[in-house]
């Protein structure tokens, strides 16, 4: 009775899987929903947008600045004379000054480099955002396909479980009727127990995979659309372009190449510490001095226009040491770019080989599946004819289940490897999911 109850429970799970396809959501729908709420992408977008105001900040150092000044002073002076007939005295005066100063940099090499670096920062932020987008596309597709693979494995495990349960029941009936042997009963029970364990494992694994997809989408009850029931058509191999061009256009390499330029600008900025700066100055001011015992009160205005030159003479070798540091960091950035270019090229080559192997594996497993079905049918016929053992039938069924499971996994792995190849080439986009989505049942 316990076996029957467990079998019915698994049948209910299978029925739920079948009914869920009526309300299935395709990959593009789930991706759009997950994309709208992912905090990682929102953070990457905010970081990208934050790069634009930095340009204005850097340009401000080359723009005009206006400063209002105000000062109040109190002074005391003592007067002494050599003539004995004249008394020495002291006087106290108060003064007030207000003014406006205008400064406009005419030459500032360091500030020039800051502006160029800030503009490079926008391109670097865009490259970072592109990498985050591509990683997210692959993450959603992986979670989506993992659920589909888990459902296929569970469906195959449930079918396998029902077959072995029926086989055990038939074997027990033959043994009770005196037409079988106890060894067949033990073999059938062992396979039935194993099939039950495999079904429970598949159910648990599917539950975990659904949880990952639920976290991405942000709501329960996500039902991915399965592969179409028609014969599986593998997506074509992406057309490979010039490897050198692919390597250069990859967002990771583009980002590092921009970082090399940024490091070179840091070196130039450090060297600018030895260069003079030239500023245009203009000011207008109003001053008033209170009357003293010696001088009357005065009020006056001042107007100045000029050019200010500042030439660094000595800074305790700070500029030299800073320049040496920036040169070493620039060298590091160049080596990181070189390492990235090699890594991208190797990853691209490996991804192409893995995808080609996956295509061949799917074709081989499809052939193996047909052979396994034929083997099971012939084993059942031979067993009824008395030329094969019941164990041969059990082994043939187990082989069929293993092939079904491997084929389901290989098909979904092929879809993910297709996207990983695009990711390795740096061309993976949300539009790339349309090819995978076209293979789904809607």
Overview of this protein structure:
The chain has helices at residues 2-20, 27-37, 39-60, 109-176, 182-217, 243-249, 251-271, 318-385, 390-425, 433-437; strands at 65-79, 89-107, 277-289, 298-310. The longest helix is centred in the first third of the chain and has 68 residues, at 109-176. A four-stranded antiparallel sheet has the order 1-2-3-4, with no helix packed on it. The chain contains ten helices and four strands; from the N terminus they run αααββααααββααα. A hairpin with an 8-residue loop joins strand 3 and strand 4 (298-310). The chain has 442 residues and is α+β, with helices and mostly antiparallel strands. The radius of gyration is 40 Å and the shape is elongated. The chain starts with a helix and ends in a 5-residue tail after the last helix. Helix 1 crosses helix 4, helix 4 (109-176) runs antiparallel to helix 5 and helix 4 (109-176) packs antiparallel against helix 7.
Please give the structural blueprint:
Elements: H1 2-20, H2 27-37, H3 39-60, E1 65-79, E2 89-107, H4 109-176, H5 182-217, H6 243-249, H7 251-271, E3 277-289, E4 298-310, H8 318-385, H9 390-425, H10 433-437
Antiparallel strand pairs: 1-2, 2-3, 3-4
Strand content: 5-15%
Structural class: alpha+beta
- Secondary-structure element sequence? HHHEEHHHHEEHHH
Amino- and carboxy-terminal Cα gap? 39 Å
Model regions low in confidence, pLDDT < 50 over at least 5 residues: 12-22
Number of helices: 10
Percent of residues in helices comes to 55-70%
Can you list the strand order of the major beta sheet? 1-2-3-4
How many strands, what sense, and barrel or not for the largest sheet?
Answer: 4 strands, antiparallel
**Shape category:** elongated
Extended strand count: 4
Radius of gyration: 40 Å
Average pLDDT, all residues? 85
């Amino acid at each position: 009775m316990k076996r029957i109850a467990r079998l019915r429970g698994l049948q209910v799970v299978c029925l739920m899987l079948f009914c869920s396809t009526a309300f299935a959501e395709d990959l593009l729908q789930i991706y759009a929903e997950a994309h709208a709420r992912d905090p990682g992408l929102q953070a990457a977008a905010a970081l990208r947008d934050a790069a634009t105001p930095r340009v204005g900040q850097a340009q401000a150092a080359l723009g005009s600045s206006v400063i209002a000044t105000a000062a109040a002073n109190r002074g005391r002076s003592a007067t002494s004379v050599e003539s004995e007939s004249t008394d020495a005295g002291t006087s106290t005066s108060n003064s007030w000054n207000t003014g406006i100063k205008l400064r406009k940099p005419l030459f500032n090499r360091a500030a020039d480099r800051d502006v160029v670096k800030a503009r490079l920062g926008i391109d670097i932020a865009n490259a970072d955002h592109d990498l985050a987008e591509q990683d997210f596309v692959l993450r959603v597709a992986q979670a989506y396909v993992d659920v589909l693979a888990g459902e296929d494995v569970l469906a195959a495990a449930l079918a396998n479980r029902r077959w072995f349960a029926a086989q055990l029941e038939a074997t027990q009936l033959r043994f009770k009727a005196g037409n079988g042997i106890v060894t067949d009963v033990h073999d059938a029970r062992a396979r039935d127990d194993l099939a039950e364990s495999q079904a429970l494992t598949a159910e648990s694994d599917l539950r975990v995979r659904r949880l990952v997809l639920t976290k991405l989408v942000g709501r329960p009850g996500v039902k991915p659309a399965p592969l179409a029931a028609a014969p599986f058509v593998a997506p074509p191999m992406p057309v490979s372009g010039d490897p050198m061009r692919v390597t250069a256009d990859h967002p990771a390499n583009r980002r590092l190449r921009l970082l090399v330029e940024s490091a070179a600008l840091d070196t130039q900025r450090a060297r600018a510490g030895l260069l003079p700066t030239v500023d245009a100055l203009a000011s207008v001011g109003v001053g008033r001095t209170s009357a003293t015992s010696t001088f009357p009160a005065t009020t006056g205005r001042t107007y100045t226009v000029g050019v200010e030159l500042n030439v660094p003479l000595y800074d305790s070798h700070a500029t030299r040491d800073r320049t040496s540091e920036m040169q070493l960091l620039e060298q590091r950035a160049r080596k990181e770019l070189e390492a990235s270019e090699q890594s991208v090229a190797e990853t691209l080559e490996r991804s192409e080989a893995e995808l080609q192997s996956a295509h061949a594996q799917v074709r081989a497993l499809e052939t193996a599946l047909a052979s396994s079905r034929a083997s099971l049918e012939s084993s059942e016929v031979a067993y009824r004819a008395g030329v094969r053992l019941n164990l041969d039938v059990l082994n043939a069924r187990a082989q069929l289940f293993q092939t079904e499971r491997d084929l389901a996994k290989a098909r979904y792995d092929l879809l993910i490897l297709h996207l990983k190849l695009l990711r390795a080439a740096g061309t993976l986009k949300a539009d790339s999911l349309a090819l995978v989505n076209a293979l789904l049942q809607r």
